[in-house]
Amino acid sequence: MSVVPSTRGHENWSSRLAFVLTALGVSVGLGNIWRFPYTAGENGGGAFILIYLVCVFGIGLPLLIAELTLGRRGRLSPPGSTGAVAVEAGHSPRWSAVGGMAIVAVFLVLGFYAVVTGWTFDYFILASTGAFSGITSAESGAMFDDLLASPLRLAFWQLLVISLVVLVVARGLRQGVERAAMVLMPLLFLCLVVLVVYALIAGDMAATYEFMIKPDFSKVTLGVVLAAVGQAFFSIGLAFAAMMTFGSYLDSSVSIPRSAAILVTGDTVVAVLAGFAVFPIVFAHGLEPSSGPGLVFETLPLAFGHMQFGTLIGAVFFLLLMVGALTSCIGSFEPMLCWAREKWNISRVRAAIASGIVVWILGVSTILSFNVLKAFYPLGFMDAFAGRTLFEIQEFVATNILLVVGGILMSVLTGWIMTRQALLDEFGLADGPLFKALRVVLRFIAPVALTFVLLMGIL
Predict the structure, then answer these.
(1) Burial of 129 (C-beta count, 10 Å sphere; 0-12/13-18/19+)
(2) How far apart are CA 23 and CA 260, in angstroms?
(3) In the chain, how many H helices and how many E strands?
(4) What share of the chain is helix, strand, coil (3-state, %, to 5)?
(5) How far apart are CA 137 and CA 119, in angstroms?
(6) Is residue 379 a contact partner of residue 385, using CB atoms and an 8 Å limit?
(7) How do the pLDDT tens digits run along the chain, 459 residues long?
């Protein structure tokens, strides 16, 4: 399908498939393959996953529909779109701050995300060269500690990641971003399928089934519920500005609710498959599923070092992580470029380079937080930030405050500010039960739930 050019000078998707693959590239990343398994492991497995699924489809899907709707209705960068939508409905242009907050959030997130993506590059090299062979638990921990303790090593990989992303996005939406998604996303799915098949054959699938499928509700606490909501938000990529920008490139004939449902389903399938790729190996080798963030970078290398074909499987796994992280970085750069080009009327190449420099500068604080400044707690006098490094503050502000507040304001903007007719036009739905249910979620359920998450996350 060819997309009709935008009336406001925006670039546009070459096809629905290009849009879906690129959007999946943003949502399917470290949030699914790295964060989902260890978060599920920390929060009891099956019960957490069930609550996560309810959050994804009950709150995440309507919010994704809202974000795509704001982008397509405004046909501008996130600040421009949210401001334009509000003005069209007879309200203040200051609603552009909602999109501005999303731009700030994506800058902060990419500041540390590019560094973590660099970890996957480093570990892919280690896995491919057999560095995990015969490794002990202490040696695995020391290997990861050595990486974090070396600012130059971290800076090298971070600069490489940012340079690759800038080279891709500078080529344009169709020639750069779309082409990368068309190559990298099939590669990601292929790697994931290979790992799941291997885990099915060589791993402990029975224990994985018990852990992931059978919920133990005695393990459900308020913390588990908050973790599920947070994971759903992070995994889909809500309020990062990317989906709003992608919506602004979307042809008016494309069904937003249907596209959002495809994206959320695809994202969820990848997250669950990642669990089925990781946990059978973890259980087969007597390792702890609740190993936290170190599950991927410390626990799994130990398993790869003592299994048959461990070097090959380890290399495929970290290739999967690397590709997922890289596609997320590429897609997340797009809103920054869109905003910079619109604000300063500069070329895509200049906008890409400028965005890359800002992300690189923000990443320096992340890098130093793991070594030189690891004992530096600049906001230690505040309870919410006590004991948090520069990296942890950056992550907390972006994911626990900006993204959640952004989600609340987007739901208010679409549920209360946009006119009923504007929503009907963009949703492409009849004024029936489905439309009314979506509006109820956006007006009442999502704002209340996210406000609760925001307050509990801060307190």
Answers:
(1) exposed
(2) 10
(3) 23, 0
(4) 80, 0, 20
(5) 19
(6) yes
(7) 333 333 444 689 999 899 999 999 888 877 788 788 888 888 888 989 999 999 999 999 999 999 999 999 999 999 999 999 999 999 999 999 999 999 999 999 999 999 999 999 999 999 999 999 999 989 999 999 999 999 999 999 999 999 999 999 999 999 999 999 999 999 999 999 999 999 999 999 999 999 998 888 888 888 888 888 878 877 888 888 999 999 999 999 999 999 999 999 999 999 899 999 999 998 888 888 877 667 889 889 989 998 889 999 999 999 999 999 999 999 999 999 999 999 999 999 999 999 999 999 999 999 999 999 999 999 988 887 888 999 989 988 888 889 889 999 999 999 999 999 999 999 998 899 999 999 999 999 999 989 988 888 777
| Alpha carbons 147 and 130: distance in angstroms, whole number | 17
Beta-carbon neighbour count of residue 421 at 10 Å?
9
Give just the sign of the alpha carbon dihedral 272, 278, 281, 282. Answer: negative
Q: How far is CA 113 from CA 157, 183, 234, 385, 399, in A?
A: 12, 21, 12, 20, 12
Token pair of 458 as six digits: 């801060």
Separation of alpha carbons 453 and 447, rounded Å: 10
Both tokens assigned to 232:
């759903």
Angle formed at CA 289 by CA 228 and CA 158, multiple of 5 degrees: 75
| Residue 261 CB neighbours (<10 A) | 15
Query: What's the rounded Cα separation, in Å, for the pair 163 and 358?
Result: 12
How many residues comprise the chain? 459
Q: For tokens 């920008």, what's the residue?
A: 245
Write out the H or E segment, with its range, that includes residue 402. none
Residue with tokens 């973590």: 116
Count of CA atoms in the C-beta half-sphere (13 A) of 280: 19
